[in-house]
Amino acid sequence: MKRLALVAMLGLAAAMPVQAQTVVKHLHITSIPAEVELMNSIAAEFMAANPDIKIELPFLENEAFKAKLTTLLQSADAPDVFHSWGGGVFYEQAAAGVLRPVEDVLSDEAKANIGTAGVSAFTAPDGHMYGVARDVSEVVLWYNKALFEQAGVDPASMSDWDGFLAGVQKFKDAGITPIAIGAKDKWPAHFWWSKLVIRLAGKDGFDAAARGEGDGFAGEDFVKAGDYFLQLSALDPWQEGFLAASYGDASGLFGDGKAAMHLMGDWDYGAMKDNSANKAGIPDDQLGILPFPTIEGGKGDPTDTLGGLGGVLFSKNASDAAVKWIEFFNSPEQQAKYAKEAYYIPIAKGAADVMTNPFKVQIGKDISGAHWHALFFDQALGPNVGGVVNDISAELAGNSMSAEEAAEMIKEAVDDSL
Amino acid sequence: MASIATGADVGAVAGSRKRRLFERNSLPALLLFLPPALILFSLFVVLPMVDAATFSFFDWNGYGPITDFVGFENYADVLTHRNFGTAVRNSLIVVVVSLVVQLPLAMWCAIALSERGVHINVLRTLFFLPFMLAEVAAGLIWNFVYDGNYGLLPAIGDAIGVDMPFVLGDKFWVIPAIMLVITWKYFGFHMMIFIAGLQSIPSEVIEAARLDGVKRWQIVRHIKIPMIRSAIVISVFFAITGALQLFDLIIPLSNGGPSHSSHTIVTFLYQFGILRMKLGFGGAISVILFIACVIVALAYRRILFKVEQN
């Protein structure tokens, strides 16, 4: 036994390279095992070509990541590269000087690769570019075709709000849970509020409110968004115990075929399978995407989408090696692997062309054809206002707050942070 | 904590102790042994406290230098926050439940299990086990127990034909559910303190009482409980301060929800101070909590002192 250990140690020593390696820590939030495997293999390929660089891929779960990042970025243990949803949180990090501007290091090729939308998403108000866009995502209304048939609901009848409510009622009458929601985590609930705001207030209304102009988020359209949300909540459309359900619970419930709809990002296509009891989820031919119901008189453009433009940011002490790694990781060649497996929709030029998954292809078209691709509101508005938006959304889902009060609370938070 | 219990004696002996220190010329020893503890204490207790108190007067999001002085605005914001009252109420409920339910239960178990014997040891270990579990692990376990779809609770409900609510998603049931976990988790700890106290009672006293024909209950009431008074004093103090600082059980259980109805003061601080990146606001909460704890400690000492004199 002892001898074995000795041999193993000698082996390790021999395998260790002599020259010092630059370590690049890339903090990610990928939890699907096969996707992590893919990331590891890309890192291995990169390290084989660059023996002087060592890539480490530490993982933090979504919620833990958000909670830990502020402290982490200001500690000696800060990652070189980390996941980001862009928006208000990114701007605060940039303003605080915890990020490294990379516009001079990043190759023109890498910039062209992510396009103007990708560059501007990771350029802070100070004009510096601090990161690289990786993927686009969209929040869509997933639905289970089998359950629609069972309840006798025609998906086409749900294209406007009244039709949508009528459809939800039909599911209730048929004893089927109409909608899965992970309201314990709150952000899944805020998608409903966001989609309603996008329909009712549109880009101009939202931007003005975020700047605190006029009545801000206490304005008419935002109160209306709350009212429409409450109309839905009044039908009790969610699964039993939805206030105690996390995103994962809701995703699993939908994946198990126990709820007819789930308003969630395109990533739920994979996550819904992973969270389901049999790990297979809803088969592709039973799964569909409903357009979010339109609202008469709404100021939003019908093509408007809600979602993300995610990527990675470089922390203050990131080395050039970190930039080199991300250029490699984000190259169309590598990103095509993600597209092929339908983990997400890469922004890298041409990478998404290999996508065969019909849902991801449709979502990719939605986003590129959108008049406004609204960033997740809780990220776009920053942690404090975003937190309040999440709070009131969970309250509205639980039918425990008036629309006026909800709108007023967001306005207060905005005024407070201006 | 022990220093609180014996605090009354400290003043009396302080004078003579000081003299002794210099007489024996123990200054070298003092210089040698005090710094490590003092440095660690200052670095990890005093300094952060001063820091938090400083933030509480600034508007600060956690990044960069602290410059935006706002006076007492954070304090005003805390006191008028719509969820702060709930958090305080919940913390007080935890204190009350700890004192009224948990400690009597612990005492009852301690008295029943203070004898020696194999089966008693097994039971004792069993009751102490929850205390040894990490808080987060315990919280997750109970999260599964309470889960309305696949948990133990709805399974029991089904077996007896009662439709159980999703307790952690229910504004009313979430607090009792958490109280049950707290009691389950910590009564073993207090039981152990009481057992240690009970075992230090000389057996002659009990025997003499028994020979005099004193009944079992009277032995408990008039001999055992009065004789482990100091253990009770410590337990009560632990229960109160522990309740005021309760955090890590709540996070995995309910995360303060639904609708922020199950926050304690500390989870409230974490949610609205840390996660929302309003560290000045968080600092103000921590100062308020600190003052509350100091008041409790001083009041407790004073009450004990009075009782002692009577």
Description:
Chain A is built from 18 helices and 10 strands. With 418 residues, chain A is an alpha/beta fold. Chain A folds into 2 domains: 20-135 and 309-374, Periplasmic binding protein-like II (D-Maltodextrin-Binding Protein, domain 2, 3-Layer(aba) Sandwich), CATH 3.40.190.10; 138-305 and 375-417, D-Maltodextrin-Binding Protein, domain 2 (3-Layer(aba) Sandwich). In chain A, strands 1, 2, 3, 4, 5, 6, 7, 8, 9 and 10 form a 10-stranded mixed β-sheet that branches. In chain A, helix 2 (33-49) links the parallel strand 1 (22-27) and strand 2 (53-56). Chain B has a domain at 84-262: MetI-like (MetI-like fold). Chain B has 15 helices and 2 strands. Chain B has a two-stranded antiparallel sheet with strand order 1-2. The longest helix of chain B is centred in the C-terminal third of the chain and has 31 residues, at 279-309. Mean pLDDT of chain B is 87; it is low at 1-14. Chain A binds chain B through residues 66-67, 70-71, 73-74, 92-93, 95-98, 183-184, 240-245, 249, 253, 383-384, 387, 391, 394-395, 398, 400, and chain B through 61-64, 146-149, 165-171, 254-255, 257-260, 272, 274-278.
